[in-house]
Write a structure and sequence with these properties.
By secondary structure, this protein is mainly α. The protein has helices at 4-31, 39-46, 50-61, 65-83, 88-94, 100-111, 115-125, 132-137.
């Protein structure tokens, strides 16, 4: 007869294995964001069905693998646009977005302004600032931290 604790231990071990697999998928997206990735490719690499990967990824990280991939691409694109060395079209190709229209739509959705406006504001506003200030000031809206509570309100 099987002990109940053994079953719980097996379930816990499987959960840890699943989380490690999801972390590897997320790390692959972070590393290969500029490559043509889709859920089927990621699922094949993780040896799980695509639907299962999508559901588990959403449960673990709060968004689908595709949404996570596009957020990473837009984050990298924003950094490139802040530098001002590349045009918007070149930036789109560099980060691996499938089309300029999709890039513009996702960029505007995540950052709040179209990429050409962001590039213009970032390069114009960054003149005369220390390197860290434009990075914080031009961070995508969905990635901003919650303001810290001051010491006077920490324990009230």
């Amino acid at each position: 007869m099987c002990q109940p604790a053994w079953g719980r231990a097996r379930i816990a071990a499987q959960r840890l294995s699943d989380l490690a697999r999801l972390r590897r998928v997320r790390d692959r997206i972070d590393r290969e964001y500029a490559q043509p990735l889709n859920v089927e490719t990621l699922a094949r690499g993780a040896n799980v069905p695509a639907g299962h990967l999508s559901r588990q990824f959403r449960l673990a990280y709060g968004r689908s693998p595709y949404a996570y991939l596009m957020a990473r691409r837009i984050e990298r694109a924003a950094a490139l646009l802040r530098l001002g060395d590349l045009s918007v079209a070149e930036t789109c190709r560099t980060v691996g977005c499938p089309s300029p229209g999709i890039f513009r739509t996702h960029f505007t959705e995540l950052v709040g302004v179209p990429p050409h406006v962001y590039r213009h504001r970032a390069t114009g506003a960054a003149a005369g600032m220390t390197p860290r200030v434009p990075q914080q000031a031009t961070r995508p809206a969905g990635q901003r931290e919650v303001p810290a509570v001051g010491p006077e309100r920490a324990f009230t």
